[in-house]
Each structure stands twice: as C-alpha cells, then as structure tokens.
C-alpha cells in the first residue's frame, strides 16, 4: 500500500484573496509559482513568509549589495546645535562644551628614583668671587684683608681667684674659690 500526502494548493492570487490561516506545520502551495508557505496556526497567508531553499538563499545573497551606497554627508555637530537652538559662533559653541573644573584627584603613586645626575662643575673659590666683586690684589692680600685690626689691650683681671689643687691656697682673698681635687 502506497501512501500519498497532499498539501493545500491554490493559485497565488486565490491565496491572497482567501488569506486563510494555515494550521501549525500545514503547507500551502502556490501551484502557478511553485512557492510554498508553512503555517503557524496564528498568521494569515499574506503575513507568512515563503519557504526559501538553499538555492533561493544563494540567489538572494548574490543580489544583495554588500558594500551599500554612500549616503549624503551629515551635518556637523555645531550645525546640529544651531538647528537645536544654539545661538553663537562655532568658537563660542566649542567653548560652551568645556565644563567646570573638577575636584582634584587622589595623589598618584610615587615614581621610581631617578638615576644620579652628572657631576657638577667646580664652583669658584672665595678669592675668585671677591675678584669678580671688584677686589684687586693678590690672594695673600685678600686673605690679609679678612683679618680685622687688633683690639686694644684689656685691663688686668682683679676678680676672685679660682684655685684647683689638692691643698688649700695660702692667704685666699674674699670671694676666692678653691676646688679640692685630693679625693
């Protein structure tokens, strides 16, 4: 016994006119185009998509424009701002984009120590500095100029005497001090 399966079939025009809802999995064939749709039990004929086999998918891909067509140039963001109501020059608009200064951030981590610098050049001696400041003379004369004049002789000391000894001084005066180092 041979089995035979028949699907619903009609012309493309009649399918559109009748616009039936096919049961889930039910196949409806257009007998004049050999196209078919598979029902879902919800959508009517005109809202269902045609079944496409591998050959049909390949044909659609071949017909597709892969790169597309270049569209028209759009407006600049300044022009969009003007269109949106901004009044002013482009420079004023750019300046308006800068917000207030933000809070200071946390300090960063310390960097690695740097490498030692090159040795410095020797500085001038004090005598050379004196020469550049206007001193004219030899280094010996300059050194001599650093010593001030001798002061006047002072008077002899007549105050109390401090004696450091193991025995007391003979005839001490009032106010003299003796420091005994005998022990």
Class per helix and strand makeup? alpha/beta
Uncertain segments are none
What is the number of helices? 6
Q: Span from first to last CA?
A: 146 Å
Q: What strand line-up does the widest sheet have?
A: 1-2-3
Largest sheet: 3 strands, mixed
Radius of gyration: 57 Å
Task: State the shape.
Answer: rod-shaped
Q: Classify the helix fraction into a percent range.
A: 10-25%
Question: H/E order of the elements?
Answer: EHEEHHHHHEE
CATH architecture of one domain: Ribbon
Q: Could you name the CATH class of one domain?
A: Mainly Beta
Mean pLDDT across every amino acid position: 86
Q: What is the strand tally?
A: 5
Briefly note the CATH topology name of one domain: Seminal Fluid Protein  PDC-109 (Domain B)
Residue fraction in strands: 5-15%
């Amino acid at each position: 016994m041979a089995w035979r399966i028949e699907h619903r079939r009609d012309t493309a025009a009649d399918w559109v006119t009748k616009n039936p809802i096919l049961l889930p999995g039910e196949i409806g064939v257009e007998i004049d185009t050999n196209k078919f749709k598979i029902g879902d039990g919800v959508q009517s004929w005109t809202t269902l998509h045609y079944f496409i086999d591998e050959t049909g998918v390949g044909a659609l891909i071949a017909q597709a424009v892969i790169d597309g067509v270049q569209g028209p140039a759009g407006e600049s963001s300044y022009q969009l701002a003007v269109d949106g109501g901004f009044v002013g020059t482009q420079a004023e608009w750019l300046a308006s984009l800068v917000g207030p200064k933000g809070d200071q951030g946390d300090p960063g981590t310390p960097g690695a120590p740097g490498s030692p610098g090159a040795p410095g050049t020797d500085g001038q001696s004090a005598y050379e500095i004196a020469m550049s400041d206007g001193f004219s003379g030899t280094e010996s004369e300059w050194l001599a100029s650093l010593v001030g004049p001798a002061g006047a002789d002072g008077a002899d000391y007549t105050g109390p005497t401090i004696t450091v000894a193991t025995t007391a001084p003979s005839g001490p005066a009032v106010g003299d001090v003796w420091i005994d180092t005998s022990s």
